Amino acid sequence: MKGYKIVKRKFSTAVWPLLAAAAILCAVAPAKAQEKQPNIVFMLMDNLGYGELGVYGGGILRGAPTPRIDKLASEGMRLLNFNVEAQCTPTRSALMTGRFPIRSGTYKVPLGGIPDGLTLWEVTIAELLSARGYATGTWGKWHLGSAEARFPTHQGFDEWYGIPRTYDEAMWPSLNETNSMWPSVGNKQGWNANVAPPEYIYEAHKGENARQVAQLNVDRRRTMEAEITSHAVDFIKRNANATFFAYVAFSLVHFPTLPNPEFAGKTGNGDWADCLAEMDYRAGQILDAIKEAGIEENTIVIFASDNGPEATHPWEGDSGPWRGTYFTAMEAALRAPFIIRWPGKVPAGAVSNEIVHIVDLYPTLARVGGAEVPKDRPIDGVDQLDFFLGKHEHSNREGFPAYVADRLSAVKWRNWKVHFIWQENMYDPPLTLPLPKVINLLTDLKEKRDGELYQGISWVVAPVTKIVAEFLESLEKYPPIKLGTPDPYSPPR
Ligand SMILES: [Ca+2]
């Protein structure tokens, strides 16, 4: 990894005259120091519902205060209408590529060992920032390719420590406890490594083979948050004098919600509340590392969740005022917590109900890093930097199509939402509606009322139809990459 960086920074002797000329030009330029590009620390929580954090109406209501994250919100901007994809994989893909995941064959969580992940043709935000000289690291769940050739260190990250798939697989090798409260689904029920490969924790550096650190089991799952944090903190310390992008893909509160032994029993309110307490503590450790490195002023911190709350007992999460669970197009699935802090730049304490989508972070962070987004493919994200900086009240997005896997299920537009497919819970069958269901999200937070289409608001279908038509036309022009597409991929001409 280090070698790669050094090679990139070496200049061939042929460019020395050019550098000398540039130095002369710089010498006559005003003496103002070039402002360093800010560092970016992106903390992405896993399955953290809208209603869990104190600042979003949870905290002590859920058995554990979240003072560090609440304080972060008071120091930056907090969004009430930040939207994600309905599942882990598509959201992570949207963040990495700025493209709706229906385009990149990553629109659903891969199950059962099918070929998975992002093609190497996609240009990730890590690749864009890395090309601008950023040191890049990620820790935690990747979920964008379980084969080594698609690990983060092949998609723009200098280093990675984490798992390629998902935390529930921690239970596969650990459920021999036939007297536990969980249903017995361990070795005696037929699982072994030959039937389905166990999940491994990997450590990887760019340009080197990845190393298997350990098999993920429930004991190890308990320490993952601490491990992720310690790697991220170490990276921040090492790169305090560089410019860096740290994508901290935290593991909480994905099921099984098992707290670190140091947090087990701490709140007295059960595993879930203990996990919430640990989440707040770990986020605080990252914030402390930034402060101790003396780089708080020049570091953008983003805290967000990848999707809505879990639906499966006993790990259910909470979605605050919104109805539904993840794996649906209900507001509980789409609206996630989002906080952005950039001292002196993003107005402290700002709160907005403007629509922002996670695809927007791609062009926004690219601009922060001085990078250009690719022009040879559709990028769905829109640059929201000026909105975050408080330069205008409205976001640069009015709406978006909401897919659940490969089903166009709903469209959001301003304070409206139109459902084409109705599904409240991840285990419900998706029902195609005979007529689009129009919801006013200011008067009907729970998306409960039927028949509003007939109460003078059918005009809402017009702007929504425009969003759908434009998106489908774009898919026509740029055919989506199919799920399971191998590398090398190149688009049809
Ligand atoms: Ca997730």
What can you see in these coordinates?
- With 493 residues, the protein is an alpha/beta fold.
- The chain has two domains: 40-175 and 197-398, Alkaline Phosphatase, subunit A (3-Layer(aba) Sandwich), CATH 3.40.720.10; 400-477, Arylsulfatase, C-terminal domain (2-Layer Sandwich).
- Helices cover 25% and strands 18% of the residues.
- The chain has eleven helices and 15 strands.
- The strands form two sheets. Strands 1, 2, 3, 4, 5, 6, 7, 8, 9, 10 and 11 form an eleven-stranded mixed beta sheet that branches. Strands 12-13-14-15 form a four-stranded antiparallel beta sheet, with helices on one face.
- The longest helix has 23 residues, at 270-292.
- The two termini are 35 Å apart.
- Residues 1-33 have low confidence and may be disordered.
- The structure holds calcium ion (CA).
* Whole-number mean pLDDT: 90
What is the CATH architecture assignment of the largest domain? 3-Layer(aba) Sandwich
Number of domains: 2
Specify the structural class.
alpha/beta
Which CATH first-tier class of the largest domain would you pick?
A: Alpha Beta
Give the overall form: globular
Proportion of residues in extended strands: 15-25%
Task: Provide the helix percentage.
Answer: 25-40%
The helix/strand series, from N terminus to C terminus, equals: HHEHEHHEEEEHEHEHEEEHHEEEEH
Question: What does the largest sheet look like?
Answer: 11 strands, mixed
Poorly predicted runs: 1-33
> Total number of β-strand segments?
15
> What is the first-to-last residue Cα distance?
35 Å
